[in-house]
Amino acid sequence: MAGAAGPGTGPGAAGGDGDDSLYPIAVLIDELRNEDVQLRLNSIKKLSTIALALGVERTRTELLPFLTDTIYDEDEVLLALAEQLGNFTGLVGGPDFAHCLLPPLESLATVEETVVRDKAVESLRQISQEHTSVALEAHFVPLVKRLASGDWFTSRTSACGLFSVCYPRASSAVKAEIRQHFRSLCSDDTPMVRRAAASKLGEFAKVLELDSVKSEIVPLFTNLASDEQDSVRLLAVEACVSIAQLLSQDDLEALVMPTLRQAAEDKSWRVRYMVADKFSELQKAVGPKITLNDLIPAFQNLLKDCEAEVRAAAAHKVKELCENLPTEGRETIIMNQILPFIKELVSDTNQHVKSALASVIMGLSTILGKENTIEHLLPLFLAQLKDECPEVRLNIISNLDCVNEVIGIRQLSQSLLPAIVELAEDAKWRVRLAIIEYMPLLAGQLGVEFFDEKLNSLCMAWLVDHVYAIREAATNNLMKLVQKFGTEWAQNTIVPKVLVMANDPNYLHRMTTLFCINALSEACGQEITTKQMLPIVLKMAGDQVANVRFNVAKSLQKIGPILDTDALQEEVKPVLQKLGQDEDMDVKYFAQEAISAVAQRLTKLDFPVKDNEEPSAPGADKNHFLRPRGPGEDTGKAHRERAARVVSEETVEAARFRGTDAAKGPAHQFHVNTRDTLAQLEIAELVHFSQSRD
């Protein structure tokens, strides 16, 4: 692209008189010729700015020819250009000059990269609406004909997307030519062109006269549906939906249904998959009579297809198919012709098929009613609830509300909940873990009262499971339940039971109490945390097991941001100082970590310096952070220098202190974390949190 001729040759060219205000435009124009792809891309994205600066005349005569000559550029640049040109009509003088945009877009519609061609076609379709009928036949239709008869398949594939936008406003003679070109593309030697034609067949049929649809489109549909390439045949199925909507029942039966029956039994699983995927649309298009006579038998075959992908696609459509059946006799049709095949899919060998069925089967309960649901569907739900595939179980639990509305919560609890409880107590911990993950969802389906009655005890039992992963998941489960049911429910139902575990003889269960407090504190808020949880945490600081004690320090660090200043100063601070002198090194380490975190919290709350404290340096103003800055005074710099002196002195003192008093025991040791020594010493000095020294 470097060195290519462009609109103008320098800054002066952009404005015509060397105006400095147009220099940025000249830079953008120069970047269109730059060797750097990114610079060219940036300039293309600002093409509208360049066009505005040049004016409509120079845009038409200089910029567009230049752009037409740059079609050999990188794909990402061409993609941006194709997108920009679609909104360029106003920049070239309005609809009267919209045809000026066709040459560069025609070139873009023939390039090898598919996304560029698709974007060029999209822009051409947009511009076609801005042409007058006369201009359309004079400029746009010839472009479509050139593309349709191009030597390369790229141009012919692009032409397929343009027939439907120019046909409605063309004259009768031109319409005949357009239909002839489309017929030629449908029988093209290149499979890519036939695919493009098949994908646009339904769209083109919608703008044709009914007689033309019967005489020309239906034969094309039949030929494409029997094409040697399955990629063409499956696209013909999609076109069948649009064609079926245009024809009467008699014409459908005679012209379309033989081909559709053939597609439902096609030798390629991809074609059968497309029939299954479009089944609801086909059902609505052909009407109830043909559905009962032809589509129901075809659907039965798809549900028992040899390919799992086809069975899964059909299973996804079970609910929609049943909903779209005529109300009269619907229940009988489902029970006799659909349900037997559904029962087989419940025990299918492929998990994707079972998962697809589980996602929709619950919806049948509202269609079949209470009695049929209890007698026929509940056994299927139970089987899927015990399925080894977690996605199947999740899909059943996710849709329990559908069944609840039909049979009621009591009936549901008698039938499905025993299975859930059984899974929750399964010997394999991974099965228990899966049920825990579904519990918040299940709780939302069943409501708080039913949950407390049936499942609350189960959730508490998981907290003392012998597998850590279960206890951890149960802790997270409690947090989600509190978020769902509210803090009042937590205060009355959950928190008391959790706090009782603090006295459990098993230290693992006592640690679980701390983990629960960590998870629940944020959800429960400051009041519950301070009044009910904090006293238990502080009491556990005297636990005999070191693991519990250092988890106390971690818990205090976790809940510190939730507590107020008084609780931190009067209750948390003394306990952390005591833990900081613990004989266990891990306890001391985590206590010091907590001291640093809590000290930072207090620092934020305590600034500015209080009146009853001594200034941090001789002559320092106690309200240093509040008083206005004096002329020439850099208060920030002064403060940083004083802080540096304090930190330096404390560091030296700490080093001397460790060397001389280490033998005096834990009470006189000063734990220094080398990773952030300066920060900790500075904070400790500012909030008076340091250890006492001789």
Automatic annotation (TrEMBL):
Gene3D superfamilies: Leucine-rich Repeat Variant (1.25.10.10). Keywords: Repeat. InterPro entries: 2AA_helical, ARM-like, ARM-type_fold, HEAT, HEAT_type_2, PP2A/SF3B1-like_HEAT, PP2A_Regulatory_Subunit_A. Residues 98-282 form the Phosphatase 2A Regulatory Subunit A helical domain. HEAT repeats lie at residues 24-62, 101-139, 178-216, 217-255, 256-294, 295-332, 338-376, 377-415, 416-454, 494-532, 533-571, 572-607. Residues 288-369 form the Phosphatase PP2A regulatory subunit A/Splicing factor 3B subunit 1-like HEAT repeat domain. It holds the Pfam family VPS15-like_hel. Residues 609-651 are annotated as: Disordered. Transmembrane segments: none annotated. Belongs to the phosphatase 2A regulatory subunit A family. It comes from the Eukaryota. It comes from Mustela putorius furo (European domestic ferret). Residues 630-651 have a biased composition (Basic and acidic residues). GO terms for molecular function: protein phosphatase regulator activity. This is Serine/threonine-protein phosphatase 2A 65 kDa regulatory subunit A beta isoform isoform X2. PANTHER family: SERINE/THREONINE-PROTEIN PHOSPHATASE PP2A 65 KDA REGULATORY SUBUNIT, SERINE_THREONINE-PROTEIN PHOSPHATASE 2A 65 KDA REGULATORY SUBUNIT A BETA ISOFORM. GO terms for cellular component: cytosol; nucleus; protein phosphatase type 2A complex.
